[in-house]
Design a protein that fits this description.
Elements: H1 6-18, H2 21-28, H3 32-46, E1 51-53, E2 58-60, H4 62-88, E3 93-98, H5 106-115, E4 122-127, H6 131-136, E5 142-146, E6 154-162, E7 164-168, H7 182-186, E8 191-192, H8 200-208, E9 213-217, E10 229-232, E11 239-246, H9 252-266
Parallel strand pairs: 3-4, 3-5, 8-9
Antiparallel strand pairs: 1-2, 5-11, 6-11, 7-9, 7-10
Helix pairs in contact: 1-2, 1-4, 5-9
InterPro entries: LysR_HTH_N (IPR000847), LysR_subst-bd (IPR005119), WH-like_DNA-bd_sf (IPR036388), WH_DNA-bd_sf (IPR036390)
Organism: Kibdelosporangium philippinense
Pfam families: HTH_1 (PF00126), LysR_substrate (PF03466)
Length: about 280
């Protein structure tokens, strides 16, 4: 079987999304007849019918539904390969993905120490709620994430661990307690087990308004002001901050940054074990 071209995959995915040859052709910037011929050639090449065509509708066959899922993966993999190749061609820049508020005490220290090295690359910090996604697609070289994040396929090192605290509005029935348990919090209808995918400021604002209560790392307490109260959660495990990067992707600047981070977190009395965590 001849290898399918990415152009053909793009044609197929566009038609599968539109289910209309005219609209798909418009999206692709081409005429309808060449698109129809290209799809027919693709079906002959792989030996299965991908679309059911009638005068009224175009629908995906079961084989087409499977091919759509796999085609999207293939196109995403090509895009990732391009981005990673482009990143490899810019060895003077290191892109670090982090969620706003994650390791806000540790991250500046790591960057400062790394910049002291001769030939250190420029570190560009990008803020996102999907750090691991940015690493998977090649949009970032390294990222900060919480230990609860799925890091399969990545190398990681532990940077810090924090005791868990519950963020509560000042008027909350538990706000005056010295400590609470997860069972105490579970009785609260506003309690969420995982922080929403928002910035720390948005989370704190939602807590202050009484919309949610949530468990986070104790490092956020220095950013609360009077809008929310942090109460220790005695039976919740510590929240971990990880430095993560794709396994098997060589990059000297990233490796040097990782070594800098390792030295900082293992140095005695470095004071960096309490980085602000909200990953």
């Amino acid at each position: 079987m001849d290898r399918v071209e990415t152009r053909e995959l793009s044609y197929f995915v566009t038609l599968a999304e539109e289910l209309h040859f005219g609209r798909a052709a418009d999206r692709l910037g081409m005429a309808q007849p060449p698109l129809s011929r290209a799809i027919s050639r693709l079906e002959r090449r792989i030996g299965v019918q991908l679309f059911d065509r009638s005068t009224r509708a175009v629908t995906l066959t079961p084989a087409g539904q499977v091919f759509l899922t796999e085609s999207r993966k293939a196109l995403a993999a090509v895009d990732t390969a391009v981005r990673r190749a482009q990143r490899a061609g810019h060895v003077d820049r290191l892109i670090l993905a982090t969620r706003p508020g994650t390791a806000s005490g540790l991250l500046p220290a790591m960057i400062r120490e790394y910049r002291k090295q001769p030939g250190a690359a420029e570190v560009k910090v990008v803020f996102t709620t999907d750090q691991i996604g940015a690493l998977r697609t090649g949009a970032a070289d390294i990222g900060l994430a919480c230990g609860t994040t799925d890091t399969e396929g990545f190398e990681t090192i532990l940077l810090a661990e924090e005791k868990s605290v519950a963020l509560l509005p000042p008027h909350h029935r538990l706000a005056g307690q010295a400590a609470v348990t997860l069972e105490d919090l579970a009785r609260d209808p506003e309690f969420v087990h995982q922080p929403p995918l928002e910035t720390l400021d948005h989370i704190v604002e939602s807590v202050a308004l009484g919309r949610i209560t949530v468990v986070v790392g104790e490092g956020v307490t220095n950013r609360l002001g009077h809008t929310a109260v942090a109460v220790p959660v005695i039976d919740s495990p510590p929240i971990s901050v990880l430095l993560a990067w794709p396994r098997g992707i060589p990059f000297e600047a990233r490796n040097a940054f990782v070594k800098t981070a390792q030295k900082l977190v293992t140095a005695p009395r470095n004071g960096l074990g309490h980085a602000a965590v909200n990953g």
